[in-house]
Design goal:
Bound molecules: pyridoxal-5'-phosphate
Number of helices: 14
Shape: globular
Strand order of the largest sheet: 4-10-9-8-7-5-6
């Protein structure tokens, strides 16, 4: 797999072809502002095909899975397991039982930190993260450090927002037990060279977890090409329902790990003296799983495959390039992270002398949804010496016209704040 083809100044994808599939995109806010949804890194919207699937299952195919001996239970179990197979194909995992349903990226990473971490990591060991990580890929490791006395280290980024590769390699050592790293930064859009990082970690015997929350929805995921040991991502960021996520794990590691949560479904046998864990993947799916969200994720994957991840990626690259041009024209805006053409469809910025929340509020009044704050990446914001930023993040249903509206609204924002500062005429 060629890793992340980077430049694409044009797109063969027409978002207008897909927008009618997304009921929410025709929302009109505050009487006359069509919704401009640019908060896709937080969560995406759902097409009718996914919504219909959820309704169909709840209306006529719903029962608990892996338990019943009745027809309905068979139906929902089949749909649930078919969805697991769709995920397996989507990420090119070798085996279906290496795909664990979780409730999201966060719970997938916590599962690894608790189960693999508690069983493996000792005082003095090191967990290597990067300054780009989301809190979901920081705090579980800090908690592991509290429990075990291991040390959590952060590989730095360069001034441009790329991972500092020489520093990363210098920080890797025989003490490194785990490298946990995002494929794409949720703030800077930085695309990390996962294959290279995995290979380097493996040479020193470290395990690698890839946080693919911001990459899986937008570019092809191939866990075998990456050679990753664990990969985590969330359904709600890729057209699926909330409450469903995936942990891919290498079979040999999952087999060796103790169960994370205990309860129904994860056991083969229970006696008053103890229990015997079930085989994979049930061993890590205690209790009633998110049945319908998992089935909905399968429908989302079908939809994404139909659109085509390469075309999605190219379209987002084009929008990102365009957004950089438009925001440069607005002026007085500091762009964060790598230049366009070298990052994913995430555009974070700071409007000079205007607080991020004020910017987002002014844009909201015009129907434009963007994110404001630290985006669950406080260490990164500290590294950038800012407390908050704004973030516009794209998906394939976004248009150039929406980027232009963003630019116009930012110009209004500047005018408004200049007036405020000068006081009434
Ligand atoms: C890079 C990254 N990792 C992890 C997460 C956490 O995902 P979730 O809240 O779906 O568990 C997010 C969510 O924004 C993210 O962007």
């Amino acid at each position: 797999m060629a890793e992340h083809p980077l430049t694409a100044s044009h797109s063969s994808l027409d978002p207008e072809q897909y927008r009618p599939d997304f009921p929410i995109l025709s929302t009109v806010l505050y009487e006359n502002h069509p919704l401009v949804y640019l908060d896709n890194a937080a969560t995406t919207q759902r097409p009718r095909a996914v919504i219909d699937k959820l309704v169909q299952v709840y209306e006529s195919l719903y029962a608990n899975v892996h338990r019943g001996v009745h027809w309905l239970s068979d139906q929902s179990t089949d749909l649930f397991e078919e969805s697991r197979e769709r995920v397996r194909t989507f990420i090119n995992a070798p085996q279906r039982h290496e795909v664990i349903f979780t409730t999201g990226t966060t719970s997938a990473i916590n599962l690894v930190a608790r189960s693999w971490g508690d069983a493996t990591v000792k005082a003095g060991d090191e967990i290597l993260l990067t300054e780009l990580e989301h809190h979901s890929n920081i705090v579980p490791w800090q908690q592991l450090a509290e429990r075990t006395g291991c040390r959590v280290r952060f590989a730095p980024i360069t001034a441009e927002g790329f991972l500092d590769l020489p520093q990363f390699h210098a920080m890797l050592s025989e003490r490194t037990r785990m490298v946990a790293i995002s494929a794409v930064s949720n703030v800077l859009g930085t695309i990390n060279p996962i294959q290279e990082l995995v290979a380097a970690a493996h040479r020193l015997g470290a395990i690698v977890l890839v946080d693919a929350a911001q990459s899986a929805p937008h570019q092809r995921t191939d866990v075998q090409a990456w050679d990753a040991d664990f990969v985590a991502f969330s359904g709600h960021k890729m057209l699926g329902p909330s409450g469903i996520g995936i942990l891919y794990g290498r079979e040999s590691l999952l087999e060796a790990m103790p169960p994370f949560l205990g309860g129904g479904n994860m056991i083969r046998r229970v006696t008053v003296d103890g229990y015997e864990a079930a085989d994979l993947p049930a061993k890590f799916e205690a209790g009633t799983p998110p049945i319908v969200p998992a089935i909905g994720l399968g429908a989302a994957i079908d939809y994404l495959n139909q659109v085509g991840l390469e075309r999605i990626h190219d379209h987002e690259m084009m929008l990102t390039e365009y957004a950089h041009k438009i925001l440069a024209e607005v002026g007085d805006i500091t762009m964060l992270g790598p230049p366009p053409g070298q990052k994913a469809g995430i555009v974070s910025f700071v409007v000079d002398r205007v607080h991020a929340h004020d910017v987002a509020q002014i844009l909201d009044a015009r129907g434009i949804a963007i994110r404001a704050g630290h985006h669950c990446a406080m260490p990164l914001h500290k590294r950038l010496k800012i407390t908050a930023s704004n973030r516009a993040s794209f998906y394939f249903y976004n248009t150039r016209a929406e980027v232009e509206k963003l630019g116009e609204a930012l110009k209004d924002c500047k005018r408004l704040f200049r007036r405020k500062k000068q006081g009434p005429a």
